[in-house]
Write a structure and sequence with these properties.
It is a single chain. The chain is 62% helix and 10% strand. α3 packs across α4 and α5 runs antiparallel to α8. The chain has a six-stranded mixed β-sheet with strand order 1-7-8-6-5-4, with helices on one face. It has a two-stranded antiparallel ribbon with strand order 2-3. With 455 residues, the chain is of the alpha/beta class. It is elongated and about 140 Å long. β7 (434-438) and β8 form a beta hairpin. 27% of the residues are buried. The chain folds into three domains: 43-238, no CATH class; 254-327, Single alpha-helices involved in coiled-coils or other helix-helix interfaces, CATH 1.20.5; 331-452, 2-Layer Sandwich (Heat Shock Protein 90).
C-alpha cells in the first residue's frame, strides 16, 4: 500500500520542508458557476433522483417476495419443505443484490464488490441448500430487502415532492396564466372556505412563490444527496462482502506476496552462492590441486599458488559473510535496530545520520522487515539519488513502528513504476504496513514506512 506523502506525516527532519499549500491538481478545471447553482441541473443530481424513483417499485416487489418466502419457509419448517423454500428465497435475494449493486454502480457511482460465492461441500441439492442457509451474506440480503422498502418509500416521497414542488413554484410565473384560462381559478389556492379564498395571482405573490421555489430547487439536490448517502451505507454494508470476508481475501493476497517474496529470496541466495562463493571455492580447489602437484618439482611456484588460494579463501569468506548479513545480520539479533542500521549506514555511498528512539525492541519479524526496508532504501540512494547526505529516523507511535529515510537527491522516485519501491510496498502491506513516498522532481525524497509493533 502506498500513497502521496501527507502534510504532517513524519518527524519533520529533512533538507527541505513541504509548503503544505493544499493547492488542487494543476490540471483540474474550475467551474465558473458555483456548485449550489449548478447542482439542480447536474447529471449527478438527476442520476440520484432517478435512483430514488426507480428504487421504490423495485423495493416494493422485492420486499413482498422476501416477506412471503420467509414467512412461507418458516411456516413450513415443521415439514421438510420449509428448508428448500427458505434456501430458494435467499438465493433469489442474492440475485436481487447483484441487481442493486449494478444500480448503485450505474446511478450512484458506488463500487461494491460481490460477496463471497457459495461453496457447497458437495455437488448435491442438500449441500447447496446448506451453503445458502449458512451464508451470512444471504441473510444480509434478506435484511436489506426488509429495511430498504420503508426507507425507499420515505426517500421517494421526500425527493420527488421537493423536486416537483420546487420546480413548479420556480416556474409558476411562466404557467400561471393557464389556471384562469383552463381551470377557472385565479391561481394556486392557498386557503379557501365558504366565505374566503386566497389565491396566488398578483405580481408580488408570483415573485414570492418563484423565490420560494428557487430556494426549494437549490436545496433539493443536497437533500437528495443526503438521502442517497443512506442508500450507499445500506448497499455497501449489507450487499457487499463482510469485514471477515474482506480480511480473508486480504490475508490470502498477503500470503501470496509473502510466498513470492520468500521464493525470490531463496532464488537470490541460490544465485549468489552459485555465482559467488561456490565458484570461488571450486576455483580454490583446482588451484590447491595444482599447487599439490607442483609442490615436489617447483616449491616456489606451489607457494605462490597457495598464497593466491589464501587470498581467494578470504574473498570467499567475505562473500559468505555478506550473504549471511543479507539473510539476517547477527548485529540485528544481538544489539537491535540502532546498531544494525548504523552498520548498514556506514556502508552507504553518502553520509547517513541515524537516529533511533525506541523504548524497547519490537517483534523480531518486524525488526527484520524494518532493517531490510532501510537497507533497500539506502541502496536506492547510493545507486540512483545522486544525494550528498541522508538521514534515518526510527521511532514508535502507539503500537506502530515508524521508519523515515530522507535524502537530498534528485527526487522523482515513483512507487507505482514497478521499481524496487513497489516490491517494498508489497512486502510492508503483507504485514499490515504502509509505505509513503514523497519525491518531487528535484528532491528531496522522503520515504516513511509504518509497521505494526506486535510485541
Amino acid at each position: 500500500m502506498s500513497s502521496e506523502y501527507g502534510q504532517g506525516y513524519g518527524r519533520g527532519h529533512g533538507f527541505g520542508a513541504a509548503d503544505g499549500s493544499g493547492v488542487g491538481p494543476a490540471g483540474g478545471a474550475r467551474h465558473r458557476v458555483p456548485a449550489v447553482l449548478r447542482a439542480p441541473v447536474e447529471g449527478r443530481t438527476l442520476r440520484e433522483l432517478g435512483y430514488q424513483v426507480v428504487g421504490l417499485p423495485i423495493s416494493v416487489v422485492v420486499f413482498s417476495f422476501a416477506v412471503t418466502m420467509f414467512a412461507l419457509g418458516v411456516g413450513l419448517l415443521v415439514t421438510f419443505l420449509g428448508i428448500p423454500v427458505l434456501a430458494l428465497g435467499l438465493f433469489a435475494l442474492r440475485g436481487f443484490g447483484a441487481l442493486e449493486r449494478a444500480r448503485a454502480r450505474g446511478l450512484l457511482g458506488l463500487q461494491v464488490a460481490a460477496p463471497a460465492p457459495l461453496r457447497p461441500a458437495k455437488n448435491s441439492p442438500f449441500s447447496w441448500m446448506g451453503a445458502v442457509l449458512k451464508s451470512g451474506s444471504s441473510w444480509r440480503h434478506l435484511l436489506y430487502a426488509v429495511l430498504h422498502m420503508p426507507w425507499s418509500v420515505f426517500a421517494f416521497s421526500l425527493s420527488v415532492s421537493l423536486w416537483t414542488y420546487g420546480w413548479a413554484a420556480l416556474t409558476y410565473p411562466l404557467w400561471h396564466w393557464a389556471l384562469p384560462v383552463y381551470a377557472g381559478v385565479d391561481g394556486i389556492q392557498l386557503y379557501g372556505d365558504e366565505r374566503h379564498s386566497v389565491y396566488l395571482d398578483n405580481p408580488f405573490e408570483l415573485t414570492v412563490t418563484a423565490l420560494v421555489g428557487l430556494l426549494l430547487t437549490l436545496a433539493t439536490p443536497w437533500m437528495i444527496r443526503s438521502l442517497t448517502m443512506v442508500d450507499r451505507l445500506l448497499v455497501s454494508g449489507l450487499l457487499g462482502p463482510s469485514q471477515v470476508e474482506n480480511r480473508v481475501v486480504e490475508l490470502e493476497s498477503d500470503r501470496g506476496v509473502v510466498v513470492d517474496t520468500a521464493a525470490a529470496d531463496l532464488r537470490r541466495i541460490e544465485r549468489d552462492l552459485h555465482d559467488g562463493a561456490q565458484a570461488r571455492l571450486v576455483s580454490l580447489a583446482m588451484d590447491l590441486g595444482l599447487a599439490k602437484e607442483k609442490l615436489a618439482e617447483d616449491p616456489e611456484a606451489a607457494a605462490r599458488m597457495v598464497d593466491e588460494a589464501h587470498g581467494e579463501v578470504k574473498t570467499a569468506l567475505q562473500e559468505l559473510r555478506d550473504l549471511a548479513r543479507g539473510i539476517h545480520p547477527a548485529v540485528l539479533t544481538d544489539r537491535g535496530l540502532d546498531a544494525a542500521l548504523s552498520a548498514v549506514a556506514s556502508r552507504c555511498a553518502v553520509p547517513v545520520l541515524v537516529e533511533v528512539d525506541l523504548p524497547s525492541r519490537p517483534a523480531a519479524a518486524i525488526e527484520g522487515i524494518a532493517y531490510f526496508t532501510a537497507s533497500e532504501l539506502l541502496q536506492n540512494i547510493s545507486k540512483h539519488a545522486r544525494a550528498t547526505q541522508a538521514t534515518i529516523d526510527v521511532w514508535r507511535v502507539d503500537d506502530r513502528l515508524m521508519l523515515q529515510v530522507i535524502d537530498d537527491g534528485v527526487g522523482g522516485a515513483d512507487v507505482t513504476a514497478g521499481s524496487g519501491l513497489s516490491g517494498l510496498a508489497e512486502r510492508l502491506d503483507a504485514v499490515d504496513g504502509i509505505l509513503v513516498v514523497d519525491s518531487p522532481p528535484g528532491g528531496p525524497t522522503r520515504v516513511v514506512a509504518e509497521l505494526p509493533w506486535r510485541r
